[in-house]
Design brief:
Distance between the termini: 43 Å
CATH architecture of the largest domain: Orthogonal Bundle
Strand content: under 5%
Number of domains: 2
Order of helices and strands: HHHHHHHEE
CATH superfamily of the largest domain: Winged helix-like DNA-binding domain superfamily/Winged helix DNA-binding domain
Shape: elongated
Structural class: mainly alpha
Length: about 200
């Protein structure tokens, strides 16, 4: 019972309206098709083209399709097609993917540390120091320009030219990895640009 109610709530039109509309537009489509047949056999003299019946037939058939197809059973809820909801869904998926990638990178990093733990320790200390410095620089930069959102490329090309932020450029892999990590730590937020690129900003 509850499943039926949920399915009805996901539909754009109530079941009774769907049935009535399907019947009305179905009859209208049949009537137009009948007129075409009658014109072909010379029973009527006025051309369907003069009455714009071709466009009306297409419209009528589309309406039949709209009202008769159970969109919710196909996984297509018409209520969810708004641009705002679609954008939010994309942004949510983007955040989820970033968090998954960050978690995977952390695991790889730990494995690499275990594998290389017997190597030269100074290299590990140097890499850790560089990562901490870049992390602090990213947070400082995005905090100072918190009214804007930045792609990694813009941070390198534009942000690195600002005083004190030159080190944002030079290690794009580390920059992108730390941005994703900060998103996973909920320190940064993301959104999608008009071109579909991921933009980062400090989390409010």
């Amino acid at each position: 019972m509850s499943n039926d109610l949920n399915e009805q709530q996901e539909e754009l039109f109530p079941p009774k309206i769907r049935c009535i509309a399907t019947a009305v537009f179905g009859v209208l489509s049949l009537a137009i098709i009948s007129y075409f047949i009658a014109y072909i056999f010379g029973c009527v003299k006025v051309s369907p083209k003069d009455l714009s019946l071709s466009s009306l037939l297409i419209f009528s058939l589309l309406c039949v399709l709209l009202f008769s197809v159970p969109w919710n059973k196909l996984g297509l809820s018409l209520k969810k097609f708004g641009p705002l909801e679609f954008e939010k869904k994309l942004e949510g998926q983007s955040n989820e993917h970033i968090q998954d990638i960050s978690a995977l990178e952390d695991k790889i990093s730990r494995i690499e540390t275990i594998i290389n733990q017997n190597n030269v320790k100074s290299d590990v200390v140097s890499n850790s120091s560089e990562e901490q410095e870049m992390r602090a620089l990213i947070i400082q930069f995005l905090t100072e320009y918190q009214q804007y959102s930045f792609s990694p490329l813009r941070m390198e090309n534009w942000g690195a030219k600002k005083k004190g932020y030159s080190k944002l450029k030079g290690n794009p892999q580390l920059l992108r990895r730390l941005l994703r990590k900060l998103v996973a730590e909920d320190l940064l937020d993301t959104r999608l640009s008009a071109k579909g690129n991921t933009l980062y900003r400090i989390n409010d």
